[in-house]
Design a protein that fits this description.
By secondary structure, the chain is of the alpha+beta class. The strands form two sheets. Strands 1, 5, 6, 7, 8 and 9 form a six-stranded antiparallel β-sheet that branches. It has a three-stranded antiparallel β-sheet with strand order 2-3-4. A hairpin with an 8-residue loop joins strand 8 and strand 9. Helix 1 packs antiparallel against helix 2. The chain starts with a helix and ends with a strand. About 16% of the residues have low confidence.
């Protein structure tokens, strides 16, 4: 079909040129002979017709013409040919306590109380800030607990903003009340999510830090933790206009 339409296009342009030249010739000839011949008008009409056809075929094509203007979009790559994924992006595997990766499997959950507190001096020239943290691997009695998995501190001297974060190799995210109550779902939320920063009494609801919400954490030893927020205590004046305490119950799943 491409060869046929190329032929139509070429023929149209040739005919346009021929009838254009013929129109000019017959027009000047008729003036020289002072005759009223109909041939210049006919040649001119055919010139206009073939010019329009040539332009349509060249720039727009016609229905059914597989030219660039009417070609269906090329099928997008599914990723199978180059080894890519055809489904949802898979989460990177995390190392278990044995250092192996594979199918994720967790044991029975354990429940522990938890608390993160604001630790800081009054605002002044000798202001100091401290970090409160929890190592969940240590909480469950791991002989090699690694580093803390979640920490809480004021962002800067005299700041009203605090931040919850995962140091080192742990990961964390915030989930809404009632969400991610199983190990795999909580792990996914931790890997794909983020913990709240610039947290204060005025921003906590907007950030989703409300009673019933939870922090999902994957520890540096591969455990999954869902630390539900049951109580939030806020400061009232001065440099204490921060969230003083976050506490509740945490469900911990250890990899098998």
């Amino acid at each position: 079909m491409e060869d046929v339409w190329s032929l139509v296009e070429g023929t149209s342009w040739v005919a346009t040129i021929v009838f254009g030249v013929l129109t000019v010739y017959l027009t000047f000839r008729g003036r020289a002979d002072e005759s009223a011949s109909p041939w210049p008008f006919l040649a001119g009409s055919l010139f206009v017709v073939f010019l329009i056809v040539a332009l349509l075929v060249t720039f727009f094509g016609l229905p059914g013409n597989p030219s660039e203007g009417n070609s269906p979009p090329a099928p997008s790559s599914t990723g199978e040919e180059d080894g890519g994924s055809t489904g949802e992006a898979s989460l990177p595997p995390l190392e278990s306590t044995a250092g192996e990766t594979g199918t994720l499997s967790y044991g029975a959950p354990e429940v522990f109380p938890w608390r993160l507190q604001y630790l800081g001096d009054e605002c002044g020239s000798s202001t100091a800030t401290y970090t409160d943290s929890i190592n969940w691997d240590d909480v469950v009695g791991d002989p090699d607990p690694g580093e803390p998995d979640v920490a809480y501190r004021v962002r800067d001297y005299c700041s009203e903003d605090t931040t919850v974060y995962s140091p080192e190799d742990a990961r964390g995210g915030l989930v809404e009340p009632g969400e991610a109550t199983e190990a795999i779902a909580c792990r996914s939320a931790a890997v794909a999510g983020a913990l709240p920063s610039y947290l204060s009494p005025s921003t906590r609801e907007r950030l989703g830090v409300v009673e019933g919400a939870a922090f999902c954490i994957v520890t540096d030893r591969g455990r999954v933790v869902r630390a539900q927020i049951d109580t939030i205590t806020e400061g009232e004046d001065g440099p204490r206009e921060v969230i003083l305490t976050l506490e509740g119950e945490a469900t911990v799943w250890s990899p098998q």
